[in-house]
Amino acid sequence: MAPTRKYMKAAGMIAGATCLCLTAAGCSSGGGPASTQTKGVTIKATMAGDPPPKAALDAFTKKTGIKVNWTTVDWDSLQTKISAAATAKTYFADVTDVDWSRVGQLGKLDWFYPMEKYLNTKKMAKDMPQMDSFTLDGHVIGIPEDASFMVTTVNKKLFAKAGIKKMPTTIGDYTKDLKQIKSKGVVKYPLNIPFAAAEGLSTYWYQTTGAFGGTILDGKGRPQFTSPDSAGYKAAQWMISALKNGLVRPGSINVADSEGQQTLMAKGTAATTFSDYSGNVGSLYNIPKSSTVTNQVEYIPTPGATGVAPNLNNPDGVGIPKKAKYPNAAAKFIKWLTSAKKEADFAGANGKDKVQPGYFVPSRLSAMKELTNSGHLDQGKKLSDMLESSTKPVFPQGAPSWYPEFSQAVYTNLHAAATGSKTASAAIKAMSEKAKQLASGS
Amino acid sequence: MGLALIPAAFTIVQSFFTVQPLNPPTRFSGFDNFRRLFSTDAVISSIGNTGLYIVIGVVLSTVLAIFMAVTLQKNFFGRSILIAIMVLPWALPGVVEGIVWANIWNSNTGLLNSLLTSAHLIDNYQVFLGQHRLLTILAIEIVQVWQITPLSTLLIMASLQNIPNDLFEAAELDGSSPWATFRRITLPLIRPGITIAMVQALIQTLNVFDQPYILNGSATAGSSLTMQTYFISFQNLDFGEGYALSLLMAVATMVISLGVLKLVYRPVEF
After folding, report:
1. Three-class DSSP category at A1
2. Same-domain check for residues A71 and A204
3. Which family does it belong to (chain B) (predicted)?
4. Do residues A386 and A311 touch, judged by C-beta distance below 8 A?
5. Percent over 70 (pLDDT), chain B
6. Does ipTM come in above 0.90?
7. Is residue A194 domain-shared with residue A241, that is, in the same domain?
């Protein structure tokens, strides 16, 4: 065979392989019309968490005639699947995850049915304080499934070792305590901040900004953290300074939120997490298998600029995609899944056999109270009080439709500032410019 | 053929349109997607990162594959078992490998830090990922090289099997040293295998996604072009720009692959 022909053949093969790669771009296909049928149907629930116990799902099927096929997909992949299916206008699930941060995007794109069409969301909202995180322009995009919020956790034993008996109520006191813990050699790096370039870093900054007494964006999506005396600016500087001053472990630049909680807080190598997840005390720190600090970690009211600060919401919800085959049946399932009785069961109020793995903090106040009264939620009273009185949404006007792009700018820039490839002020400027550009729609 | 060509054509056409579900309708925008790509810092930075992934990955995997193929060509006890073990990383998904290696590179609890400390080579745990761009890319690419080298080795081994044994015997009779035999006989005759190995390594490294995403998150120091395609398309929902970047990557794959062919490939006849 002549060399030229060999080249041509090889080049043809490469071109073929390249074309195959491009098929990933994909084509679209339509889904069938939705059915209002609710009896004798099978609905698909594609969620990021594990399913409720089989017995509970069987009981739901027996009562309603709706069979539920629950599939678990990791959170990141699930968000991609939601986007890909909705863009391709194809069926993917009858019930799926609605994260608070995507409410603006999903609402504007009209990818989900408004839940008020199927459920009495106004009545539900009275028992679900985080319903507003899922509401956009009067429409409820998803029903809160849990009531996750950001909370400060401290290892009281390590604080006590440093001679700190009274827990801090302001950021100033908190920072002073961190320095004291370090200087007394109790732990080398007392504060846990997950500086990996991931969503957890953005969330940490939002909570810290809230503690400094400010918000991230105004009602029109304009940045509120540009000025050096703004809360967001101070919060970013406080986080980066903590790293530079040795209060945070240098290796934290590659530590994601859950990893920091599991390997630093739960092992007693960090004394506190300023922005931790509600429920972690009972689900992680007090579990001997995964923790060496059982009964040492407590929730404290978030230290703020001048006193106790709010706790920002970070919940997941459930909604019905527009291409669902059985939206009415899906709504029945969501009503059942988020009922007070089931939420209390799934969180462990009524026995281990009814627990849904990974489910800790019910979205309903009534379920939270039942759980707290049952004594099965560690420090449930504190969490219950915070949920009722001090939680608030990250974006009071609802997450903007361009939130994912903004969040990426936040965590990549904060990460760059932490690694030293950018100054803190340059990072904040870049975040601010991105917010301005996105808000202006250019 | 239709499965490949129709989506390819669709991608090419759509890359010249603004396809943003948040900003409808879809409309013709000429080269606007391409222009915006080249004015985005993250994309520019990813071009540099991907270039480094390609250079490190292709060179390292090819050199290692040649060494391993030549070593495994000889018959020795346990050879089959060694080949079976060698193939394992190739069979693992990139995500799994990323998680495994994250436990090695981890700056707080990682195996490498633990070993270096035990050996008294370092006093404090070191940060391997995220701090320095080149070190980060090298650490990430080592993980991918670990994955792609087995296939490269098998491809080169297949070429080695084709070389008639008489040639080696004649060289030995002529008093050729092992190095001279390798340089003057083995290497020239396995060039077709090396070419294919290099092209597959090139395609893999140009499309690297799992390893940097798992090991280094979305950090600029380390993010690849494929990651940008994902962010642009599925996070920012700017499909037109995503199509444009995919198209540029496909063209780059073809052009660089042809360059490798031209540079490395030589026809071999026995």
Report:
1. coil
2. no
3. Belongs to the binding-protein-dependent transport system permease family.
4. yes
5. 100
6. no
7. yes
Distance from B80 to chain A by nearest Cα, in Å?
A: 31
CA distance A8 to B83: 33
Tokens of A244: 């530079």
Interface probe with A: pick from B46, B235, B239, most Cβ of A within 10 Å: B235
Express each pLDDT in A70-116 by its tens digit.
Answer: 999 988 789 889 988 998 889 999 999 999 999 999 999 999 999 99
Locate the chain A residue with the closest alpha carbon to B259.
A11
Closest CA to A337 of A82, A34, A49: A49
Residue B209 and residue B215 in contact, taking contact as beta carbons nearer than 8 Å: no
Q: CA angle, corner A5, sides to A4 and A11, nearest 5?
A: 90
Residue A155 domain boundaries: 150-313+401-440
Residue B194 structure tokens: 């090396």
A13: pLDDT strictly greater than 80: no
In a domain, A231, yes or no: yes
Chain A neighbours among B 90-119 (CB < 8 Å)? Answer: 106-109
Mutation target to probe the A interface, by most A beta carbons within 10 A, among B112, B114, B123, B234 is: B234
- Specify the residue for token string 């507003």: A132
pLDDT tens digit sequence for A116-159:
999 999 999 999 999 989 998 899 999 999 999 999 999 999 99
d(CA A17, CA A19): 5
**% residues pLDDT > 90 (chain B):** 83
Neighbours of A383 (CB within 10 A): 26
Could you give the domains of chain B?
48-234 (1.10.3720.10)
Residue A101 covered by a domain:
yes
Is the Cα dihedral A82, A85, A89, A92 positive or negative?
negative
Radius of gyration of chain A (CA): 24
Are A142 and A134 contacting, i.e. CB atoms less than 8 angstroms apart?
Answer: yes
What total number of domains does chain A contain?
Answer: 2
